[in-house]
Design goal:
This protein has 424 residues and is of the alpha+beta class. Helices cover 46% and strands 13% of the residues.
Length: 424
């Protein structure tokens, strides 16, 4: 295929789509030299060719083909086989490309970018993005259960687009225990990363080694650099250093973690005995260990005198339609119970498929009565569920905890586990 030039800044994951596709097709795709984002793409010469000023942008060797939008560029430099040999295959490839842009990309960016300092950190937004991305990845995991690649028996444009869209998530936020729960997605991602055309563009891909930790300094530094246009006079910088040491950084948005509950109001659980069960400690164990360790740890530490275990079942399964809508129902309840997280934990699962599903879960909290009655703010959703207090010493309870904490099994009607959400 004819040569062309790709205008982009370094390590632009959107540009990787075209660069990898070009490797597969043998296209001589060169990266424009001396490209400076914020300058080159705002120059009169660039805007004459690409009025929107967006990158990546592509220009054919003869200057007759000018393209923006990464999927379009990747499509243009791909082979016919990678685009789909027939209409049905091409449509499925387009389906995955659209799905990546609408389902994966927004959630991945909203989860990853705050940790990189590109966006301000908002805990609620990050948790929602995390939940959304993991829900999408579980769908992808189910699809890949019996497949090596997304559409055909070979790498297609669908694989390249979805892979590059997920690249930052795998590098920065999908830590080992999370990846282990998505075994098929992880296998597929590693298979793609080791393909010679992919490795030639990306080199070795380093996966996230531990759960991400927010550093407010990153956002402050990037924000300041942006204000300064990325350029500081060295003399000015030197002069500012002493003053900079004395200045306190602007207060970052408070971040709640397992050790720090909300401080703006009294915790409704404060009236109940604390007991010996350290909920924060268990949550860390559950997040960082597999179920073979975390579930026995739960039973070892659980305090039945001051904590209780409950089984909840959604009352109106006949109203459940699309799986993603049912998952949004669970997520919405979790969000409205945000201030209950300090003293509660739950695994809520959806069983079945579109138009034939149920929702149920196992909850643990401090106290022996329904915790939702402790605060009017917690009473919006709980009446939509039937609640049954479980006996911690019974074999039934142990089996339910094992099933729901490990996301396995079927519901009472024999519907298989589809996906789950953790309240912690």
């Amino acid at each position: 295929m004819a040569a062309g030039v790709l205008y982009t800044y370094p390590e632009n994951f959107r540009a990787y789509k075209a660069l990898i596709a070009a490797q597969y097709s043998g296209t001589d795709l060169k990266i424009a030299p001396n490209f400076v984002f914020g300058e080159t793409n705002k120059s009169a010469e660039f805007l004459k060719k690409f009025p929107a000023g967006k990158v990546p942008a592509y220009e054919s060797a003869d200057g007759k083909v000018l393209l923006t939008e990464s999927n379009a560029i990747a499509y243009y430099v791909s082979t016919a086989a990678m685009r789909g040999a027939d209409n049905a295959t091409a449509a499925r490839i387009l389906q995955w490309a659209s799905w990546a842009d609408s389902e994966l990309l927004p959630a991945s960016c909203a989860w990853v970018f705050p940790y990189l300092g590109i966006m301000p950190f908002n805990k609620q937004n990050v948790e929602r993005a995390k939940s959304d991305l993991l829900a999408a990845l579980r769908l992808l995991d189910a699809h890949l259960l019996t497949r090596t690649f997304l559409v055909t028996e070979r790498v297609s444009l669908a694989d390249i687009i979805v892979f590059t869209t997920l690249l930052h998530a795998f590098q920065y936020v999908l830590e080992p225990s999370t990846r282990a729960s998505l075994a098929n997605v992880q296998r597929w991602f590693l298979t793609l990363s080791q393909q010679p055309p992919v490795a030639k563009v990306l080199g070795p891909v380093t996966l996230c080694a531990a759960a991400p930790v927010y550093d407010p300094k990153k956002f402050q530094e990037l924000s300041q650099n942006k204000k300064d246009g990325g350029k500081k006079d060295k003399k000015m910088e030197k002069k500012e250093q002493p003053k900079k040491k004395e200045e306190k950084p602007a207060p970052a948005e408070p971040i709640e973690d397992f050790d720090e509950g909300p401080k703006d109001s009294k915790d409704p659980f404060d009236s109940l005995p604390k007991g010996t069960f350290n909920m924060d400690d268990f949550k860390r164990c559950y997040s960082n260990e597999d179920e073979a360790k975390s579930i026995p740890y739960f039973w070892e530490k659980f305090d039945p005198e001051n904590y209780s275990i409950w089984y909840a079942e959604y009352k109106y399964p006949q109203e459940l339609a699309k799986v993603f809508m049912s998952c949004n129902l669970i997520t919405g309840m979790f969000q409205r119970l945000d201030k209950m997280r300090k003293q509660a934990f739950a695994s809520v699962c959806l069983f079945g498929s579109d138009n034939d599903s149920t929702i149920s879960g196992v909850w643990v909290w401090r106290g022996h009565d329904l915790a939702f009655q402790l605060s009017p703010d917690w009473q919006i959703d709980y009446e939509s569920y039937d609640w049954r207090k479980l006996d911690p010493a019974s074999e039934e309870t142990k089996q339910l905890v094992q099933q729901y904490f490990s996301w396995t099994g079927t519901d009472k009607g024999g519907r298989p586990f589809n996906q789950g959400k953790i309240f912690k």
